[in-house]
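Protein record
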Amino acid sequence: MSDGSNQLSAELFYRNPLRVGEAKPAFGLEEPDPSRPDHAGHMAQIVDGRDTATSLEQEGFKLLQHSSSVADFYDDQCVQDQYYPEIKELVSRESGAAFVQVLSHITRSEEQALQGKRLGAHRLVHNDFTSNLIKDGFFAALEEEGKYDMENGRICIFNLWRRFDKDGLDTPFAVCDKRTVSEEELIPTDLYNYIGDEPQGLTVEIYQSAHNEDHEWYFYPKMNRDEVLMFKTYDSLDKPFLPTLHSAFDDPSLKKKASPRESIEVRAVCFYN
C-alpha cells in the first residue's frame, strides 16, 4: 500500500447501483448506447504503482519486465504462434501453476477505434469473470481431458496487458487493489458479442462495479513494450472471489499531444493440482 506521494486525480466510470426490480445488466463488446446512461463518473486518486511493491496474491497485480520477439501485435497469427508461447512461459514462472493455457487476446488501438476498425480502450470499471465461472461450465472440456480436478484443483486466470505505442502516455490503465473490493458493489453482467443490434450468443458473465470510496487505484505511467502488467481476474480458491477491478482512464495532467494508445491483452488460465 502506497503513501500516495505520487498520484493523480482522474475520472473513472462505474455502473450505477441496481434499482429494486432492475433486470440483470447485459451489453456487448461494442455497447449499443455510447452515452452510457447506466454509468456515472467518479473522481479517484490513482497512485503511481512504480513507487509500490505489489504481488499477485495480495494486491492482485504486478508489473513485470518482459521482452517479446513479436514485431507486429496486429498480426493475429503471429501473436498466436510467437506471443502465446512467450506468455505461457512467463505465466508459468510467475504463478507456479502445474499447467497454463492461453485463452485469448485482444488488441486495441485508439487511432483505429476512431476509424471504426478496432476496439479502443475500455473506460468502464469491470472484471472479466465472476465467481460463476466454474458453475457455468467454462472448464468442462478441460476437466474431461483430465487437465483439471474440479473437486480438488485450483484455477486462476491472469490477464497480461502490454502497450506498444511510442510514448506510453495516452489513456493509461488502472488496477484496483483487490483487498479494497467488497461483494456489495459487484454487479454480475452478461457480456454478449453484438452483430448489428442482435446478440450473437452469451460470451461470458463479467463483473461491473458500483462506486466504492474504499477502492485504492494504481497505474504505471509511461509503460513501454518491454513491460507487462499481470493481474488476477479469477481465483477458485478465494471465498468469496474478489477481483482485481480495472479500467482505462484519461489522464487530465497530460499537457502535450501523445501518440494514440496501442495495447494487447492476453488471458491465461492456470491449473494447480
About this structure: Residues 45-51+58-272 form a domain with the Jelly Rolls fold (CATH 2.60.120). The CA atoms of residues 151 and 273 lie 10 Å apart. Helices lie at 76-95, 110-114, 140-144.
